[in-house]
Amino acid sequence: MASIAKLSRDRRKKGAPYYIQFFDHEGRRRTTKGCPDKGVTEAKAAQIETIVERIKLGLAEATSLDVLLGRDLAAGWESHVKAYEESLERKGNTTKHIRLTASRIRTALNGAGFSTLADFDGDAAEEFISDYCRDGDYGPRTYNHYLQAIEAFGNWLAHPRRRAVERNPFAGIPRRNAATDVRHARRALKPAEMAALIAAARASIRRRQGYDGKTRARIYLLSYMTGLRKGEIASLTPLSFGLDTQQPTVTVEAQYSKHRRKDVLPLHADLVPEIRRWTDGLADDEPLFPKLANRKAYKMIQNDLEEAGIPYETEEGLADFHAAGRHTHITELLRSGVSLAEAKELARHSDVRMTMKYTHIGLEDQARALNQLPTVQKPANHGPETCLHNVCTESGADGQPGTPNVGEWQQDRSEKKRENPRRSKGLGIECREMAADDPDCQKVEAAGIEPASRNISTQASTCVSREI
123 and 199: one domain? Predict the structure, then answer.
């Protein structure tokens, strides 16, 4: 029997629609959207029950149920991909993200041989994407990008407001571990290398990607001092800077920020006078670096690194524009003593683990940090040999543990208790000279510890040597 009900969050809303839940001809539980009118929804539920029974008896095709539910699985998927693109655009995604996502979806669906929504199959999609990445020599990260694109599209199709498909056919396909095969590892530049890069660009007489050497030097300096991405730098105008406040700032508007939120970041004090010069004479809405978002910044910086005598690629990775600017910025923040939490906020990362991926701490950094570990300082009046930590046990004259007569030990203990009850509990015990070659080592009786065996000649039962 079909049942109708409103969603729990809509039960007190008068205009909220009812939903119909039923079992189809294959015994699967399914849900479809009705309307705000309960009577009309009940009538539709009755029609669904009738169609399901007719399909079970062989009197109707299974596609008739999809038609009744407003779901035409025999239709092509291209119109749905276009609608999905429009949905991404309404959510404020960048043109680049929409184009890449749609391209990956179409590549996967066409490659897997899907013509209609009814053809969608997770195994077939996984097999094609795996073969496609292997043949194209693409790494796990690219493989995951394709899976992410079609899975998000499947979720959109199966959304309760849409129900183009009953459930996401691409859900649950396992991702690959991108850390096992990094195709484009990046490295951060050292401060001396960054200075050489900026100097080489400033002295260059060549134009690269449409910019003269002075402009390129400004771009590199701004990227390093702020950690902004290429697209964010391209969006900056004189209005983006607040230079006359107590704490000068730079603002990245939400439409240009990667996480689609307005970001306000502090500016380094040494950068403020430079920005004043750069913005002098510009209109308020005039970009500092026109068309930078569409330039191939990696080629620009590759040539300038070559002029500076710095390798573009080493065993550590590439020093492309993103690495030389943002990676170097975050790495030098931590090298200068900034906490990881502060670096995370300045980098505008949602997770500190992402910040760690931008941090390039090498063996030299580890050695420098290790050398800051305080060493154990020895007093000046001590010789080269000292007892820093020595646990000792009492022994008799022949080197074997001495065990006194039990009766004598108990009598001795009772007499000491009568003499001074507190001192018998271990309070106020004095240090006595150890019978050792080193006069600097003394033994201290451990408070509250009764002896398992004790030396006949001394009163200490358990002793630790300490340097005094």
Answer: no
